[in-house]
Design brief:
mainly alpha; about 100 residues; SMc04008-like fold
């Protein structure tokens, strides 16, 4: 592969990010706690990273605005439509993963 110039690399990364966001919008069956337990990040993490990137460019953006971009709708609406109660097993796995990451 030839070396990518900065603009092309940024365009490819942006396209991959847009595809990831679209995939997550379509996979409403995948809960954030499942993503956290398996991958260590979720839609909320992406929202925080998006907001941080905006702020790094001098743009004001609230966490709720960033979440709406990632979720494709206001977070409360997504929660009401798609979020299910996490089982005790999932909650324990999440707590264990959080404890490990604190070290």
């Amino acid at each position: 592969m030839t070396e990518l110039d900065e603009r092309t690399r940024t365009e490819l990364e942006a396209a991959a990010f847009r595809q990831l966001v679209e995939h997550l919008r379509n996979r409403t069956d995948v809960q954030n706690i499942d993503m956290m337990n398996l991958a260590g990040f979720c839609r909320n993490c992406l929202s925080k990273w998006y907001r941080a990137a905006a702020e790094g460019k001098g743009l004001e953006m609230s966490y709720d605005e960033a979440r709406e971009i990632i979720y494709g709708m206001p977070y409360e609406e997504w929660k009401n439509k798609h979020q299910s109660e996490a089982s005790a097993e999932k909650q324990q796995a999440f707590a264990a993963a959080q404890a490990r990451s604190d070290h």
